[in-house]
Amino acid sequence: MTHDNWHTLEVEKVLEILNTNKAGLSEKEVNNMLIEYGSNELKEKKPTPLWKMFLRQFESFLIIILIVATIISALIGEVTDAIVILIIVVLNALLGFIQEYRAEKAMKALKKMVTPVALVVRDGKQMEILARDLVPGDIIIIEAGDRIPADARLFEVTSLQVDETILTGESTPVTKSIHTISGDNAQLGDRKNMLYMGTNATYGRGKAVVVNTGMRTEIGKIAELIQVEKEEKTPLQLNLEQVGKQLGIILLLISAIIFVIGALRGIEILQMFLTAVSLAVAAIPEGLPAVVTITLAIGLKRMAKRNAIIRKLPAVETLGCSTVICSDKTGTLTRNEMTVQRIYVNNREIFVSGEGYIPVGEFYFNNEIVDPRKDKDLELILKIGALCNHAALEKKESNYRIIGDPTEGTLLVVAAKAGILRDEVRKKYPRIGEIPFDSETKYMVTFHSTPENEKIAYIKGAPDVVLDMCSYIYENNSERTLTDNDIKNILDMNRNMADDALRILIMAYKKIPDVREFTHDAIKNNLVFVGLVGMIDSPREDAKLAIQLCRSAGIRPVMITGDHKLTAMAVAKDMGLIKEKSDSQALTGPELDNMSDEDLEKVVDNISIYARTSSEHKIRIVRALKKRGHVVAMTGDGVNDAPAIKSSDIGIAMGITGTDVTKEASDMILIDDNFASIVSAVEEGRSIYDNIRKSIKYLLSCNVGEVLTIFIAMITNLPLPLLPIQILWMNLVTDGLPALALGVDPAEPDVMKRPPRDSRERILSKKMLLNFGFIGMVMCIATLLIFAYNLSQNSQDITKARTMAFSVIVMSQLFYVFSCRSERYPLRKIGIFSNKYLIIAVISSIILQVAPVNIPVLQPAFGTTSIGIYDWIVIILISLTAFIFSEIVKIRK
């Protein structure tokens, strides 16, 4: 009994297919249907056991290497080293575990969208049941304020309006009808005879027959997409995994070769084994994951201060290399608050200032302020909007909100800007009758008594309908006959407003002599046209600036919305997303349906606007962009955005208007729903990646220098220049604080003026490997020269030679760290003291290095001897070579 196009069928056919009628199902039929279709609830996949989810975090090659390093460190007595490595391993496992576990929370949040109870008709009787017990064929009753409990086909409506924002992204409630909708490919927002689970009725009432329940509903399909869509590893994770594999294999092989060479030379087997193992432990940068994690965590704190909450640490870096930001329109680029911008009255186009629901603004004609209290034509149209209205404007502390239909609410706001308040004007003009808005008539009428004891009808509705009912026009505070020229002017203005994506309402009135005639017949002709009101979901001013900043950073913003194409294009042009309205820059959902994935990939780089889209469309767009090599950030707030958010490289949810489902599926949440905060996050992400590269460059260059020192000493027949304990101490002193201090380095001046980094770029590029080799060789030569020189002066005093070599290689690394602060700029340009944490870290490390050399009680354990001031001066001068060579290379660039 599956069917995807219920909206195309007549009600009688739907009832026939579902084997039901308007009196509802019997109890027996319900029980049979429950057995066949199951409960009306969102099913979850069988969850992975927590213990298995945790153990799965240890499958990474780098993690395995770290575990081996832990065991080796413990075996050779380096318990402190072993504990540090173990903490890092567990920390990384916990982070991965938390990321997987949150998928379950996303499903739980989605299940909250299902209504707990539903009003149904069964066996001809109205009753309230648990929503989970609904089945296809049930007759449900919907009233204003209800959350829709299942997907259903309407067969009876009374001014029913439904807010479908969470599914379609449209900012205004949809007026429902019972008529069939042609076209199998009609988008959800166009299926006005359908109701969908999780949406909300805002006005009127209706009856419908349930057609789909549980996972077969539209929201159920989204739930399925969330579960099916796999989270891919970020570029940083992939790069670090590659680093781990390459580095682990190379260094373990070199350590093994060193052991073999030393053994063949006749050096004591145990000493060579300890040396090789110590070198392997020191060379494998077990501090790298900690540096990356801490750098990301620091970036997270910085971003939180800039209104961006990161839920997944690697996403900080991913955002930094984003090339496309796919943004929803409603609530993200716009305020999700309808605002009256233009009023056509008395043959004038009046502009209204102010944003959102705040009742503050001015009225302008020809750039001069108009006082509505002194302009009777303008005052009348505002008064009609306030009286022919069911909404309320409520102030809570300093915030304003609309209770009821947003379109009606914005009429109250614009009236309040003129000092016309709903409650006050209703006292002067009490309502005595009403004709509710209906999708058939496309207008609403309220009847009032005037202070002069007259009866008057105020009408608002669709211009194309109400204008045909008008015979007169209100102009200069009086009525006159409506002429053909008047009609032409009105239609021209209506067209101009529509071209600018404004939603337009016409306002009219008619004096009613007979109080009993509160019917359609009473107002079907001889109305007095007053004017047009044009409103729009206002663009965010800060979002306009954010779009410009994105472009300067080489990032392409793309709008994906459920609204109509013309509306989307008008908003996009206003925000600077596109320069001119052009169909070549926009695609609609139906057009996407007629395109293959291959065809979409060919044009996706040229499209800036996608309108009337569904969840599946958004995922296709994200996938097409990713196949074109883009790193895609996807913003959203509704449930319909969740699957695409999860499938993107980084999903961004709105903190204020975002649903729980979207937040749980996201990588980042904007606290203030401000598109501009994304730009701040991009800057932070780029800076963080730069800092991670700096730390990797520093750590690996130093490790290469250590390995080369031992390796070349072995093949040149020199004694061991460093003892195992010295190697491990060097690892502790140089790989800790300085590397972490690089993680908080300030951003470089051009961080937001360069194009996004290629996400496929490897951290261990050929260029960086050459740099490692060059700097490592400089450190190696400096260390072996001082070692060989001291041996030549006194071949019997190998302890002093090792002490000098030990000090040179450590000090070389501590000086070199300053050059690692930038790959392009010399230290003098970025400022020696601009990173105070690095200064503190280096001074601390120098003190730690001096201790085992000059404190007699530590010398036996470290195999060192005291050295004088002259020796330290020589050590410092030689140790500066790595820093100097690195700075010279930058100058040559």
Explain this structure to me?
With 893 residues, this protein is of the alpha+beta class. It has five domains: 6-42 and 114-223, Distorted Sandwich (Calcium-transporting ATPase, cytoplasmic transduction domain A), CATH 2.70.150.10; 50-111; 235-306 and 680-892, Calcium-transporting ATPase, transmembrane domain (Up-down Bundle), CATH 1.20.1110; 317-332 and 541-679, HAD superfamily/HAD-like (Rossmann fold); 338-537, Calcium-transporting ATPase, cytoplasmic domain N. Strands 10, 11, 12, 13, 16, 17, 18, 19, 20, 21 and 22 form an eleven-stranded mixed β-sheet that branches. A hairpin with a 2-residue loop joins strand 14 (392-396) and strand 15 (399-403). The two termini are 70 Å apart.
SSE order and pairing:
Blueprint: H1 11-17, H2 27-37, H3 50-55, H4 61-75, H5 79-111, E1 117-122, E2 125-130, E3 139-143, E4 151-163, H6 165-168, E5 174-175, E6 194-195, E7 200-212, H7 218-228, H8 235-264, H9 269-283, H10 287-305, E8 308-310, H11 314-320, E9 324-327, H12 329-333, E10 334-345, E11 348-352, E12 363-365, E13 368-370, H13 376-387, E14 392-396, E15 399-403, H14 406-417, H15 422-428, E16 431-435, E17 443-449, E18 455-461, H16 463-466, E19 470-475, E20 478-481, H17 484-499, E21 503-511, H18 520-523, E22 527-539, H19 541-552, E23 556-560, H20 565-575, E24 586-588, H21 589-593, H22 597-603, E25 609-611, H23 615-627, E26 632-636, H24 642-647, E27 650-654, H25 660-665, E28 668-670, H26 675-715, H27 724-735, H28 737-742, H29 766-793, H30 798-819, H31 827-830, H32 836-854, H33 859-862, H34 869-892
Parallel strand pairs: 9-23, 9-26, 19-22, 23-25, 24-25, 26-27, 27-28
Antiparallel strand pairs: 1-2, 1-3, 3-7, 4-5, 4-6, 4-7, 8-28, 10-11, 10-22, 11-12, 12-13, 14-15, 16-17, 17-18, 18-21, 19-20, 21-22
